[in-house]
Amino acid sequence: MPQVTVTEQLLLHQKASPMATGRFTRLLNELILAAKIISREVNKAGLVNVLGFTGETNVQGEKVKKLDEFANSVLIYRMQRSGLLCAMSSEENADLIEIPDNFQQGDYILIFDPLDGSSNIDVNVNIGTIFSIFRRTRANGPVTLEEVLQKGSEQVAAGYFLYGSSTMMVYTTGEGVHGFTLDPSVGEFLLSHPDIKIPQTGKIYSINEGYWDYWDDRTREVVSYFKSTSNERRKPYSSRYIGSLVSDFHRNLIYGGIFLYPRDYRDSKRTTGKLRLLCEANPLAFVVEQAGGMAIDGENRIMDIEPLELHQRVPLFIGSKNDVLKVKEIYGKP
Ligand code: AHG
Ligand code: MN
Ligand code: MN
To answer: Is 118 touching ligand 1 by the criterion CB < 6 Å?
Structure first.
Protein backbone atom coordinates (compact mmCIF):
# COMPACT_ATOMS: atom_id res chain seq x y z
CA MET A 1 0.00 0.00 0.00
CA PRO A 2 1.47 3.43 -0.88
CA GLN A 3 2.67 5.08 2.33
CA VAL A 4 0.53 8.19 2.87
CA THR A 5 1.48 10.47 5.78
CA VAL A 6 -1.05 12.56 7.72
CA THR A 7 0.21 15.72 6.05
CA GLU A 8 -0.19 14.21 2.58
CA GLN A 9 -3.70 13.04 3.53
CA LEU A 10 -4.63 16.57 4.64
CA LEU A 11 -3.13 18.18 1.53
CA LEU A 12 -4.76 15.48 -0.60
CA HIS A 13 -8.09 16.69 0.79
CA GLN A 14 -7.06 20.35 0.82
CA LYS A 15 -9.60 21.14 -1.92
CA ALA A 16 -12.41 19.00 -0.49
CA SER A 17 -12.06 20.18 3.07
CA PRO A 18 -11.97 23.95 3.66
CA MET A 19 -10.53 22.97 7.04
CA ALA A 20 -7.30 21.58 5.69
CA THR A 21 -5.69 24.96 5.13
CA GLY A 22 -1.94 25.26 5.65
CA ARG A 23 -2.50 26.65 9.14
CA PHE A 24 -4.67 23.73 10.14
CA THR A 25 -2.13 21.25 8.77
CA ARG A 26 0.54 22.96 10.87
CA LEU A 27 -1.72 22.77 13.93
CA LEU A 28 -2.22 19.05 13.44
CA ASN A 29 1.51 18.55 12.91
CA GLU A 30 2.29 20.33 16.21
CA LEU A 31 -0.24 18.02 17.89
CA ILE A 32 1.43 15.02 16.24
CA LEU A 33 4.85 16.07 17.54
CA ALA A 34 3.45 16.35 21.08
CA ALA A 35 1.89 12.89 20.72
CA LYS A 36 5.17 11.39 19.53
CA ILE A 37 6.91 12.80 22.63
CA ILE A 38 4.16 11.44 24.89
CA SER A 39 4.26 8.08 23.10
CA ARG A 40 8.01 7.84 23.72
CA GLU A 41 7.51 8.34 27.48
CA VAL A 42 4.52 5.97 27.59
CA ASN A 43 6.54 3.28 25.87
CA LYS A 44 9.27 3.42 28.48
CA ALA A 45 7.07 4.34 31.46
CA GLY A 46 8.36 1.44 33.51
CA LEU A 47 11.96 2.55 33.06
CA VAL A 48 11.78 6.23 33.84
CA ASN A 49 10.31 8.03 36.77
CA VAL A 50 6.82 8.64 35.30
CA LEU A 51 4.89 5.93 37.08
CA GLY A 52 2.82 6.63 40.13
CA PHE A 53 1.22 9.77 41.48
CA THR A 54 2.41 13.35 41.72
CA GLY A 55 0.69 13.81 45.05
CA GLU A 56 -1.63 16.49 43.60
CA THR A 57 -5.37 16.38 42.94
CA ASN A 58 -6.80 17.94 39.78
CA VAL A 59 -9.93 19.99 39.14
CA GLN A 60 -11.79 16.71 38.62
CA GLY A 61 -10.95 15.76 42.18
CA GLU A 62 -8.74 12.96 40.83
CA LYS A 63 -5.20 12.12 41.95
CA VAL A 64 -2.82 13.24 39.18
CA LYS A 65 -0.46 10.65 37.74
CA LYS A 66 3.03 11.72 36.71
CA LEU A 67 2.32 10.74 33.10
CA ASP A 68 -0.90 12.82 33.18
CA GLU A 69 1.19 15.80 34.17
CA PHE A 70 3.94 15.03 31.66
CA ALA A 71 1.46 14.69 28.78
CA ASN A 72 -0.34 17.86 29.86
CA SER A 73 2.85 19.92 30.04
CA VAL A 74 4.11 18.66 26.66
CA LEU A 75 0.83 19.56 24.96
CA ILE A 76 0.63 23.00 26.58
CA TYR A 77 4.31 23.77 25.84
CA ARG A 78 4.14 22.77 22.19
CA MET A 79 0.70 24.12 21.35
CA GLN A 80 1.29 27.51 23.00
CA ARG A 81 4.15 28.02 20.55
CA SER A 82 2.21 26.90 17.48
CA GLY A 83 1.00 30.47 16.78
CA LEU A 84 -2.32 28.95 15.74
CA LEU A 85 -4.34 29.00 18.98
CA CYS A 86 -6.12 31.73 20.88
CA ALA A 87 -6.89 29.47 23.87
CA MET A 88 -6.71 25.92 25.18
CA SER A 89 -8.64 23.91 27.75
CA SER A 90 -7.28 20.74 29.35
CA GLU A 91 -9.05 18.19 31.49
CA GLU A 92 -6.20 18.74 33.99
CA ASN A 93 -6.56 22.55 34.25
CA ALA A 94 -9.42 24.23 36.12
CA ASP A 95 -9.40 27.34 33.93
CA LEU A 96 -8.78 28.29 30.30
CA ILE A 97 -5.11 28.15 29.30
CA GLU A 98 -4.17 31.52 27.80
CA ILE A 99 -1.56 31.97 25.07
CA PRO A 100 1.22 34.15 26.56
CA ASP A 101 1.57 37.57 24.90
CA ASN A 102 5.04 36.77 23.61
CA PHE A 103 3.58 34.04 21.37
CA GLN A 104 1.61 34.68 18.18
CA GLN A 105 -2.13 34.13 18.58
CA GLY A 106 -4.27 32.21 16.09
CA ASP A 107 -7.95 31.52 15.42
CA TYR A 108 -8.22 27.97 16.73
CA ILE A 109 -9.24 26.69 20.16
CA LEU A 110 -7.86 23.32 21.32
CA ILE A 111 -9.60 21.26 24.02
CA PHE A 112 -7.92 18.06 25.17
CA ASP A 113 -7.71 15.19 27.58
CA PRO A 114 -3.93 14.81 27.74
CA LEU A 115 -4.02 11.27 29.00
CA ASP A 116 -7.22 9.23 29.02
CA GLY A 117 -7.32 5.99 30.99
CA SER A 118 -4.82 7.17 33.63
CA SER A 119 -5.77 4.36 36.01
CA ASN A 120 -4.11 2.02 33.52
CA ILE A 121 -0.73 3.78 33.31
CA ASP A 122 1.03 1.77 36.02
CA VAL A 123 -0.16 -1.60 34.69
CA ASN A 124 0.79 -1.19 31.04
CA VAL A 125 -2.75 -1.10 29.64
CA ASN A 126 -3.53 1.12 26.61
CA ILE A 127 -4.08 4.85 27.22
CA GLY A 128 -4.59 7.77 24.87
CA THR A 129 -4.91 11.50 24.21
CA ILE A 130 -8.21 12.99 22.99
CA PHE A 131 -8.47 16.35 21.17
CA SER A 132 -11.21 18.67 19.92
CA ILE A 133 -10.64 21.75 17.73
CA PHE A 134 -12.91 24.78 17.23
CA ARG A 135 -12.51 28.07 15.40
CA ARG A 136 -13.01 31.12 17.58
CA THR A 137 -16.35 32.90 16.98
CA ARG A 138 -15.02 36.50 17.37
CA ALA A 139 -12.67 38.10 14.88
CA ASN A 140 -10.17 39.34 17.46
CA GLY A 141 -9.67 40.53 21.03
CA PRO A 142 -9.17 38.36 24.10
CA VAL A 143 -10.87 35.00 23.78
CA THR A 144 -14.02 34.62 25.89
CA LEU A 145 -15.32 31.54 27.70
CA GLU A 146 -18.39 31.63 25.42
CA GLU A 147 -16.09 31.09 22.43
CA VAL A 148 -14.82 27.90 24.06
CA LEU A 149 -18.24 26.65 25.22
CA GLN A 150 -19.43 25.84 21.69
CA LYS A 151 -21.70 22.89 20.83
CA GLY A 152 -19.90 19.77 19.59
CA SER A 153 -21.52 20.26 16.18
CA GLU A 154 -19.27 23.34 15.74
CA GLN A 155 -16.04 21.31 15.99
CA VAL A 156 -13.80 21.72 12.93
CA ALA A 157 -11.73 18.65 13.79
CA ALA A 158 -11.46 15.99 16.50
CA GLY A 159 -9.69 12.73 17.19
CA TYR A 160 -7.39 10.81 19.44
CA PHE A 161 -3.96 9.22 19.79
CA LEU A 162 -3.85 5.67 21.14
CA TYR A 163 -0.69 4.46 22.88
CA GLY A 164 -1.04 0.70 22.59
CA SER A 165 0.62 -2.21 20.80
CA SER A 166 1.31 0.49 18.23
CA THR A 167 0.73 4.24 18.45
CA MET A 168 -2.25 5.27 16.34
CA MET A 169 -3.86 8.54 15.40
CA VAL A 170 -7.55 8.66 14.38
CA TYR A 171 -9.12 11.97 13.35
CA THR A 172 -11.87 13.64 11.35
CA THR A 173 -12.23 17.10 9.82
CA GLY A 174 -15.79 16.33 8.76
CA GLU A 175 -14.65 14.41 5.68
CA GLY A 176 -14.84 10.89 7.11
CA VAL A 177 -12.56 9.23 9.65
CA HIS A 178 -8.97 8.23 8.92
CA GLY A 179 -6.57 6.13 11.01
CA PHE A 180 -2.78 6.37 10.94
CA THR A 181 -0.19 4.13 12.60
CA LEU A 182 3.17 5.47 13.76
CA ASP A 183 6.13 3.82 12.05
CA PRO A 184 8.79 4.40 14.72
CA SER A 185 11.57 3.61 12.24
CA VAL A 186 10.74 6.75 10.24
CA GLY A 187 8.83 8.68 12.95
CA GLU A 188 5.82 9.21 10.65
CA PHE A 189 2.15 8.37 11.09
CA LEU A 190 1.23 6.39 7.96
CA LEU A 191 -2.33 5.86 6.69
CA SER A 192 -3.38 2.40 7.90
CA HIS A 193 -7.18 2.71 8.25
CA PRO A 194 -8.60 4.89 5.40
CA ASP A 195 -12.23 5.99 5.73
CA ILE A 196 -13.20 4.03 8.86
CA LYS A 197 -16.90 3.04 9.07
CA ILE A 198 -18.40 1.55 12.25
CA PRO A 199 -20.69 -1.52 11.77
CA GLN A 200 -24.35 -0.44 12.09
CA THR A 201 -24.98 -3.13 14.73
CA GLY A 202 -22.22 -4.26 17.07
CA LYS A 203 -21.42 -7.35 19.06
CA ILE A 204 -19.66 -5.75 22.03
CA TYR A 205 -20.94 -3.69 24.95
CA SER A 206 -18.57 -1.79 27.24
CA ILE A 207 -19.69 -0.66 30.69
CA ASN A 208 -18.46 -0.87 34.28
CA GLU A 209 -21.04 -3.31 35.66
CA GLY A 210 -19.65 -2.83 39.14
CA TYR A 211 -21.98 0.16 39.39
CA TRP A 212 -25.16 -1.95 38.97
CA ASP A 213 -26.46 -0.92 42.39
CA TYR A 214 -26.04 2.78 41.53
CA TRP A 215 -28.24 2.57 38.38
CA ASP A 216 -31.95 3.21 37.96
CA ASP A 217 -34.24 0.52 36.52
CA ARG A 218 -34.14 1.90 32.98
CA THR A 219 -30.34 1.70 32.91
CA ARG A 220 -30.48 -1.85 34.23
CA GLU A 221 -32.96 -2.64 31.44
CA VAL A 222 -30.52 -1.19 28.89
CA VAL A 223 -27.61 -3.29 30.17
CA SER A 224 -29.79 -6.42 30.43
CA TYR A 225 -30.76 -5.98 26.77
CA PHE A 226 -27.14 -6.35 25.65
CA LYS A 227 -26.61 -9.39 27.91
CA SER A 228 -29.75 -11.26 26.91
CA THR A 229 -30.46 -13.80 24.15
CA SER A 230 -33.84 -12.23 23.54
CA ASN A 231 -32.28 -9.21 21.76
CA GLU A 232 -32.79 -8.87 18.00
CA ARG A 233 -29.45 -10.59 17.42
CA ARG A 234 -30.61 -13.54 19.57
CA LYS A 235 -27.06 -13.78 20.95
CA PRO A 236 -25.63 -11.93 23.94
CA TYR A 237 -23.10 -9.22 23.18
CA SER A 238 -19.54 -9.75 24.41
CA SER A 239 -18.58 -7.66 27.42
CA ARG A 240 -15.33 -5.75 26.87
CA TYR A 241 -14.26 -2.94 29.25
CA ILE A 242 -10.71 -1.89 30.03
CA GLY A 243 -11.33 1.37 31.85
CA SER A 244 -9.73 3.45 29.13
CA LEU A 245 -12.45 5.24 27.13
CA VAL A 246 -10.26 5.91 24.12
CA SER A 247 -9.26 2.21 23.88
CA ASP A 248 -12.78 0.87 24.46
CA PHE A 249 -14.09 3.38 21.92
CA HIS A 250 -11.47 2.53 19.29
CA ARG A 251 -12.08 -1.24 19.54
CA ASN A 252 -15.84 -0.70 19.18
CA LEU A 253 -15.28 1.70 16.25
CA ILE A 254 -13.42 -0.99 14.33
CA TYR A 255 -15.37 -4.11 15.41
CA GLY A 256 -18.78 -2.57 16.09
CA GLY A 257 -20.25 -2.14 19.56
CA ILE A 258 -21.46 0.33 22.16
CA PHE A 259 -19.71 2.09 25.08
CA LEU A 260 -21.97 3.13 27.94
CA TYR A 261 -21.22 5.41 30.89
CA PRO A 262 -24.66 6.22 32.37
CA ARG A 263 -25.53 8.68 35.08
CA ASP A 264 -25.79 6.97 38.45
CA TYR A 265 -27.37 7.56 41.84
CA ARG A 266 -24.78 7.61 44.65
CA ASP A 267 -25.79 8.45 48.23
CA SER A 268 -29.29 9.14 46.77
CA LYS A 269 -27.78 12.00 44.69
CA ARG A 270 -28.31 11.80 40.92
CA THR A 271 -24.98 12.29 39.16
CA THR A 272 -24.40 13.15 35.51
CA GLY A 273 -21.85 10.36 35.06
CA LYS A 274 -18.07 10.72 35.02
CA LEU A 275 -17.15 11.60 31.45
CA ARG A 276 -16.46 15.16 30.34
CA LEU A 277 -18.52 16.72 27.53
CA LEU A 278 -15.81 18.98 26.08
CA CYS A 279 -12.67 16.83 26.13
CA GLU A 280 -14.11 13.30 25.89
CA ALA A 281 -17.73 13.03 24.68
CA ASN A 282 -17.75 15.74 21.98
CA PRO A 283 -14.57 14.75 20.12
CA LEU A 284 -15.48 11.03 20.11
CA ALA A 285 -19.05 11.90 19.09
CA PHE A 286 -17.71 13.80 16.05
CA VAL A 287 -15.53 10.81 15.10
CA VAL A 288 -18.28 8.22 15.57
CA GLU A 289 -20.90 10.21 13.61
CA GLN A 290 -18.43 10.69 10.75
CA ALA A 291 -17.90 6.89 10.83
CA GLY A 292 -21.69 6.30 10.60
CA GLY A 293 -22.31 5.76 14.31
CA MET A 294 -24.17 7.70 16.98
CA ALA A 295 -23.55 9.36 20.37
CA ILE A 296 -26.27 10.43 22.86
CA ASP A 297 -26.60 11.27 26.55
CA GLY A 298 -29.48 8.78 26.77
CA GLU A 299 -31.91 11.09 25.05
CA ASN A 300 -30.15 13.94 23.18
CA ARG A 301 -27.42 13.97 20.53
CA ILE A 302 -24.15 14.71 22.34
CA MET A 303 -23.10 17.26 19.71
CA ASP A 304 -26.32 19.28 20.21
CA ILE A 305 -25.68 19.88 23.93
CA GLU A 306 -25.00 23.54 24.76
CA PRO A 307 -22.07 23.45 27.23
CA LEU A 308 -22.50 25.55 30.38
CA GLU A 309 -19.03 25.06 31.87
CA LEU A 310 -15.59 23.74 30.88
CA HIS A 311 -15.64 20.54 32.92
CA GLN A 312 -19.30 19.67 32.49
CA ARG A 313 -19.93 15.93 32.75
CA VAL A 314 -22.45 14.02 30.68
CA PRO A 315 -23.83 10.48 30.47
CA LEU A 316 -22.42 8.86 27.30
CA PHE A 317 -23.80 6.12 25.02
CA ILE A 318 -21.64 5.92 21.90
CA GLY A 319 -20.98 3.46 19.08
CA SER A 320 -22.92 1.44 16.49
CA LYS A 321 -26.03 3.29 15.40
CA ASN A 322 -28.59 0.51 15.94
CA ASP A 323 -27.25 -0.20 19.43
CA VAL A 324 -27.40 3.48 20.45
CA LEU A 325 -30.92 3.71 18.98
CA LYS A 326 -31.93 0.74 21.18
CA VAL A 327 -30.65 2.64 24.25
CA LYS A 328 -32.63 5.71 23.19
CA GLU A 329 -35.76 3.57 22.70
CA ILE A 330 -35.50 2.01 26.17
CA TYR A 331 -34.88 5.33 27.96
CA GLY A 332 -37.68 6.92 25.90
CA LYS A 333 -40.35 4.43 26.96
CA PRO A 334 -43.21 6.06 28.92
P1 AHG B 1 -9.18 9.91 32.59
O2 AHG B 1 -8.07 8.93 32.82
O3 AHG B 1 -8.88 10.92 31.52
O4 AHG B 1 -9.66 10.53 33.88
O5 AHG B 1 -10.42 9.11 32.01
C6 AHG B 1 -10.80 7.95 32.63
C7 AHG B 1 -12.21 7.63 32.21
C8 AHG B 1 -12.28 6.85 30.91
O9 AHG B 1 -11.06 6.76 30.24
C10 AHG B 1 -12.74 5.49 31.34
O11 AHG B 1 -13.66 4.95 30.42
C12 AHG B 1 -13.43 5.77 32.66
O13 AHG B 1 -12.76 6.85 33.23
C14 AHG B 1 -13.37 4.59 33.58
O15 AHG B 1 -14.15 4.96 34.69
P16 AHG B 1 -14.51 3.87 35.81
O17 AHG B 1 -13.22 3.54 36.47
O18 AHG B 1 -15.51 4.57 36.70
O19 AHG B 1 -15.14 2.69 35.10
MN1 MN C 1 -10.37 10.79 30.08
MN1 MN D 1 -7.32 12.28 31.46
So the answer is: yes
The residue whose CA has the least distance to atom 1 of ligand 1 is: 116
pTM above 0.85, yes or no: yes
Q: Which residues of 19-46 are buried (b: 16+ CB within 10 A; e: fewer)?
A: bbeeebbbbbebbbebbbbbbebbeebe
* Cα 167 to the center of its chain, rounded Å: 15
Q: What is the pLDDT of residue 45?
A: 66
The domains located in the chain, with CATH, are 6-193 (3.30.540.10), 204-331 (3.40.190.80)
Ligand 1 pocket mutation pick from 53, 93, 264, 274 by most atoms within 8 angstroms of CB: 274
Mean pLDDT in the chain?
92
pLDDT digits (tens, 9 = 90+) for 112-142: 999 999 888 888 899 999 999 999 999 888 9
> Which strand (E) or helix (H) includes residue 116?
strand 108-116
Element (H, E) at 226: helix 217-227
CA 159 to chain centre: 6
How far apart, in whole angstroms, are the C-alpha atoms of residue 116 and residue 13? Answer: 29
Closest C-alpha to ligand 1, atom 8: 245
Q: Using the CB atoms, write b or e for 135-151: b if 16+ within 10 Å.
A: bbeeeeeebeeebbbbb
Q: CA-to-CA distance for 332 and 227, rounded, in angstroms?
A: 20
